[in-house]
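Re-run with default settings, no changes from the original entry. Doing this only to confirm the output is reproducible before filing.
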Amino acid sequence: MNPKITKKISYFAPIGLALYWLILLKASAMPESKEGFILQSGYIKYLLGWISIFLLSVGLAYVHYKWVFLKIVYHYSPAIRYLWSSWVSVLVWLIFELLQFRTGHFGGYIDENILISLLVLILILLVAYIGDYIRTKQLQTKLLQSKSEADLHALKAQINPHFLFNVLNTVYNQASLEESPNTADMILKISDLLRFSIEEAPKNKIPLEKEISFLQNYIDLQKTRLPKSPKIELDFQWEISPNKFVVSPMLLMPLAENAFRYGLSLSHPCYIRLSAILEQQTLKFSIENSNFAVGREGLGTGLKQVQERLKLEYNNQNEFHIQKNDKTFSVQLKLNLGN
């Protein structure tokens, strides 16, 4: 969808609605008596009309928040976000026409129906923004709870990192002396992973290159655990040019971890295909694997945490899609790193 076209539409829609109302107001410059209309239609019918307005407002507020507000206002694409004002114009026009139908298109009620339409629109938008505020607070609370639990587990399992680094360096030197390059390389990668988790993971943002390097080390270690078998297909493509972008640490690792955990089998043909591409300021990350977790319902803890972190840290700057069936499981992530 072309952003320029949707941007023009977003300007014309409210202008067209305003002109439509001006024409109606001019045509009803000499209205008939409102009291006469009420007497003709009956007070009960008129009262039921107001009740209908209230129910309509509640229904539209719910539908607008659940099916429109969250999908347009926080959409990754600017072209979709430009449709927001157009949708609002269509919504208030729909409310106005329903009010006009309620009053039998009586000329004396046009100005009143316009005012009521705008008030109902304000109510609908207010409900949407309040609901979004509550949703964001709930996400923040859940994230803080998850962080507190993670901190508690880290404290329980805490070990002096310098001591562990020294032990790993000793084992690395011993492996090098014994001419075991593969073992030495594994130890070095483990040391790098540990250092990253201690020094980089607590930060809010880190360079993208460090995040990718951490992920590559993790994948390399996982590959060393696997036997050489024609049944296992591994395909990893990295197209990350030197850049100055930053990203939340350990955001991508749970996606790869999920693939290695549920996508491989020693007795059946299986595969993992990963692609990480940086195009201008957008990181396109996709991973597809065999699905050997058919009986598992919902998403695992790692994927849920990634979803929650994306909503909180990259609210309208990402696209995150999960597709799964009995044979395959795939994740596509587009992350705007420009803001």
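Residues 3-145 form one domain. The chain has a mean pLDDT of 78.
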